[in-house]
Write a structure and sequence with these properties.
The protein is of the alpha+beta class. The chain is built from 4 helices and 14 strands. Helix 1 crosses helix 2 and helix 3 runs antiparallel to helix 4.
Length: 286
């Protein structure tokens, strides 16, 4: 847990899953997402109940909890006095303030689900404002938050326990999936069906003006695709595609030059030109 506290109203927030450099407190104050530098402080209180403890006490006289003094086991930083505390502490062992982080303020508004029409309340995933459907478990990611959310999901999978199940790596053949165009929950226009990274087989619904829709578990599949190195293959594929396009354009230019030179010849030259052009472009692209 990583805590920061508003210096105006002293509300605490857990920012361990938040990537944004700043966040807005419920009182309106803008907070920097930067936990303070830890200080080594004298253990004066019990981390479990907040009661005062003696300088040499091994256990709290009030609740019986162990008093941890080993600095290597103290990694939670008090957002008020910056003293090191145990990860599971409920009170600061130096100043006694209670650790009681509140939910981050949620942006956005309720929207209809594009898949099942259930009302989706605004919420947060990894610190990003989203709308999650309580019915089908789909996820609406507004604006440009999709790429940042995917990066956060991929990092979370990289940091998972070695014994955790690996994420699903990719989708299926898009041509064999049921075709269903969905409407954007904001503007009610039909969204585009997008094959993520062009080759993953994970079909997402995208409204370029308002956001991206992911069916249940598709965020996990996208993260798995990235962890499997799928995103690294795209630059090479794009470079190859650009080269093919350039070669095809050059071939077209050559054929047009030849057509102008031979314009006065037999009429059938136009037919031969068209067939030759098609063969040339086909050879380049295949």
């Amino acid at each position: 847990m990583k805590l920061i506290a508003c210096q105006v109203c002293h509300t605490q927030y857990d920012v361990s899953q938040v990537d944004a450099p700043e966040l807005t407190c419920r009182c309106g104050e803008t907070l920097a997402n930067q936990p303070p530098t830890a200080l080594d402080a004298v253990v004066a209180r019990c981390g479990s109940c907040g009661a005062q403890v003696g300088a040499e006490a091994a256990r709290c006289e009030y609740c019986g909890s162990e008093i941890v003094r080993d600095h290597e086991k103290l990694s939670l930083i008090c957002p008020e006095c910056f003293a090191r505390n145990g990860d599971h502490g409920r009170f600061c062992i130096a100043c006694g303030v209670a650790f009681a982080p509140e939910a981050l303020p949620v942006e956005g508004h309720e929207l209809p689900c594009p898949a099942c029409e259930t009302r989706m309340p605004p919420t947060q995933v990894s610190g990003f404002a989203v709308n999650e459907c309580p019915g089908c478990r789909g996820l609406w990611v507004a604006g440009g938050n999709f790429d940042a959310l995917v990066r956060r999901a991929a990092r979370a999978w990289e940091e998972r326990s070695p014994t955790a199940e690996p994420p699903r790596m990719a989708g299926a053949n898009p041509a064999r999936q049921a075709l269903a165009y969905r409407r954007c929950p904001e503007c009610d226009e039909f969204m585009l069906r997008v094959n993520y990274q062009r080759s993953s087989g994970i079909i997402l619904d995208e409204c370029r003006a308002h956001g991206t829709w992911l069916d249940a578990d598709e965020l996990e599949q996208v993260a798995g695709f990235i962890l499997g190195g799928g995103h690294q293959k795209r630059p090479a594929a794009d470079a190859a595609r650009e080269k093919l396009s350039a070669d095809a354009a050059a071939a077209v230019a050559r054929m047009r030059t030849r057509s102008h030179r031979d314009a006065g010849q037999h009429r059938s030259a136009g037919i031969d030109l068209g067939l030759g052009l098609l063969r040339t472009v086909f050879d380049i692209l295949t």
